[in-house]
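To: structure subgroup
Subject: Chain for Friday's discussion

All,

I'm putting the inputs and outputs inline so they're searchable in the archive.
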Amino acid sequence: MTGTPSADSGLARRALEVAKPMWESREVRWSAASGILLAIGFLAGPAGATGSVTSGIYVVGTVVGLRFFALEGFEVLIRHKVVGIELLMAVAAVTAGVLGLWGEAATLAFLYSISEALEEFTEDRTRNAIRALMDLAPKRVTRLASNGEEEIVELDQIDVGDRFLVRPGQGVATDGVVDEGNSAVDESAVTGESIPVEKGPGDQVFAGTLNASGALVVTASATSVDNTSAKIVQLVTEAQQQKGHSERFMRRFSRRYSPAVLVAGVLVAIIGGALTGDWETWAVRAATVIVAAAPCALVISIPVTYVAAMGSAGRRGVLIKGGVHLEELAAMRVLALDKTGTLTRAQPTVTEIHPVADIDERQLVAVAAGVERRSEHPLALAISRYAHSVGVDLPEVSAFRSLVGAGAEATINGTDYVVGSARLMEERRIDLGDISRVVEALQAQGDTAVVIA
């Protein structure tokens, strides 16, 4: 009987679990408020409101829309002496408002605030992924003293060489080597391994993985600042700081384009006003140049595209760390995976059944599910689900015993059965005969073989 991992990455699942809804983003709420005020102002006129009331609504909508990006634009100007798109959009909106075009000012402020809000929301999703990684390892650890006594300490108090206890259901605090105990450890969040890995003395365990069944005593081989989880957090943080090619182009473009537009607007106002003497008309035309030339569509399109694509991938269990990696997917022609079964759904399913001797397929499923029905191992649950789906009646079981890290055994109708890996059968000196070749073939294609004897 074989089970094939049929899951998304554990990290992606955890990141999605902690990701806050879009409406909980402060920038999104301000942008939405600006849009609502803009809509109210647009409808106020036809509803009979006075011009001053309508203008007042537009003014408030403009201020709300400018709330974040105008301050950011002035901060960039003061600190870095750079005229950015944020400042250009703010000047365009304020200029339109000063000239009495508050409806246009509110519209411009709202449209650009969408861009800023979505960009911030995209970065929030990556920050949530980092928080998810940091939360994988427990913050408090049961350290074992030299005399065997247990003491609860903070994670940062664990040094290399310290021994600590990992109970069933607990996360592994830091990297180390198993000294005592046997258990299955869920490594999906760190390595992507879909099936819990059996661990025993001498085996390595990683920070952020989850101990499934037995208790383990581990000797730390890394501290909280240089273990596997910490290194992954560092990589994710670096990925977050990498901008996509389109975004980098937009930044370079804006550094030259934004000052040029501002200069062009000022020149239109000064030259036109000086030649004609009609300063008000040429001030309106200068504002028109700034508003029309502001690259609002270009600026909005990039973060909107990132949010839509990364959000869609996230709902399917794929965590994309940043815009640069999203763009590189378009140029990818070959995807190399480290081993068979890397891309899974983290829910094993029964794929093949190979009965031997005089037992038929339904009898084999009944015995396997009967023995495994009291086990919490993912493969045991897969066998139980399969038995239920094909309508197999489970027999009465007695003398059940879980073999941590290996399988289970029980008695059915006076006959003793063992269900587990081929390695367990070898340890029990059970001759598999021809079935050993079947097991090898199944394992070669990425399946996990469960043997019933």
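Points worth raising on Friday:
The two ends are 12 Å apart (CA to CA).
The first strand starts at residue 2 and ends at 5.

D.
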